[in-house]
Specification:
By secondary structure, this protein is an alpha+beta fold. 46% of the residues lie in helices and 15% in strands. Strands 1, 2, 3, 4, 5, 6 and 7 form a seven-stranded mixed beta sheet that branches. A hairpin with a 3-residue loop joins strand 6 and strand 7. The termini are far apart.
């Protein structure tokens, strides 16, 4: 019957997505443990400068549990004592502290708002972000090493982190939300530019878009991801602000043509899901080439 066909379709889709998460998307136990060790190693080193460093706080997708394999970087906020005269000074200060601490066993580089540190025999970079306490609820961090901007990592963390006060239904919703975020990040990765690796959407922007989803009250992943793409196919879906409430549109880097191309991609994804064409949904294809979206394409380089 039609009902049995639909149930079988949902069951297969859920099984496929669950296996995809397990085999290709979730961080491996080794990745998770090694990244935690790197963060602890850098944190312990910087905390040896108590006159300059107040505290350390893991931030970013790794801290939120929404990072996907392969893991390239983890973010670490270093709260400095007393706001510097300018943001560039703060970045330089952290660069010097790390250079003095790891003079011979690592590579360092300033990259916008952070200082990247990479140790031998690993492809994972620890991005150390200088910040200063801005209020009881957030920090000032250096934007592109030039100006101070407000951020509140806890606001994003609370969207996906299970806490003691949550009931079982709320915890289940957050677990499913993290699964949907990871699946969509993987889809976004599959559509990267073949030349430079640029994704159709910035990773954090895509994650915040997911925060606004109204997910169905079911554990079925097929139905959840189908609803995600259908809800993304809305006029304002890509124009979202970070949970910290600073009013900055995370989709501000997208022009009208890019948005139209994204909506076409979302609509196509919905069709693939309805037809159970999972190999096409997650096929490797160049969004920029296929949708004729212009972008500055530079050869990808991870040379340290």
């Amino acid at each position: 019957s039609l009902q049995l066909h639909v149930m079988a379709s949902l069951s297969y889709g859920h099984s496929y997505l669950s296996e995809l998460l397990r085999v290709r998307i979730e961080l491996t136990d080794e990745e998770q443990a090694f990244a935690e060790t790197l963060v602890e190693h850098v944190s312990d080193a910087l905390l040896k400068f108590p006159t300059r460093v107040e505290r350390m706080e893991p931030i970013g997708s790794f801290a939120r549990g929404t990072a996907i394999h392969p893991l390239h970087d983890v973010d670490l906020l270093v709260v400095i004592k007393g706001k510097e005269k300018d943001a560039a000074t703060a970045v330089e200060e952290v660069y010097k502290l790390l250079g003095n601490t790891f003079p011979n066993e690592s590579s360092l580089r300033i990259q916008g708002k952070s200082v990247g540190i990479r140790f031998p025999h690993t492809s994972i970079t620890v991005d150390v972000v200088p910040g200063a306490k801005a209020s009881t609820e957030g920090y000032s961090i250096a934007l592109d090493g030039a100006i101070w901007i407000f951020t509140n990592p806890q606001a994003s963390l609370m969207k996906v982190q299970e806490v003691d006060g949550d009931d079982e239904k709320s915890k289940a919703v957050k677990r499913r939300l993290k699964q949907v975020i990871k699946l969509l990040k993987y889809w976004n990765l599959c559509k990267s530019c073949k030349c430079c690796g640029k994704k159709p959407l910035k990773s954090y922007h895509l994650e915040v878009m997911c925060y606004n989803l109204q997910l169905p009250d079911t554990e079925d992943l097929k139905y959840s991801i189908e609803q995600a793409f259908l809800q993304f196919y809305g006029v304002d879906a890509v124009d979202v602000c970070a949970p910290q409430g600073d009013g900055v549109n995370l989709g501000g880097y997208l022009d009208d043509h890019h948005k139209s191309a994204l909506w076409a991609e979302f609509r196509q994804a919905s069709v693939y899901i309805l037809d159970n064409k999972w190999d096409l949904l997650f096929s490797s294809s160049d969004f920029y080439e296929e949708r004729q979206v212009a972008h500055v394409c530079a050869t990808q380089s991870n040379t340290w």
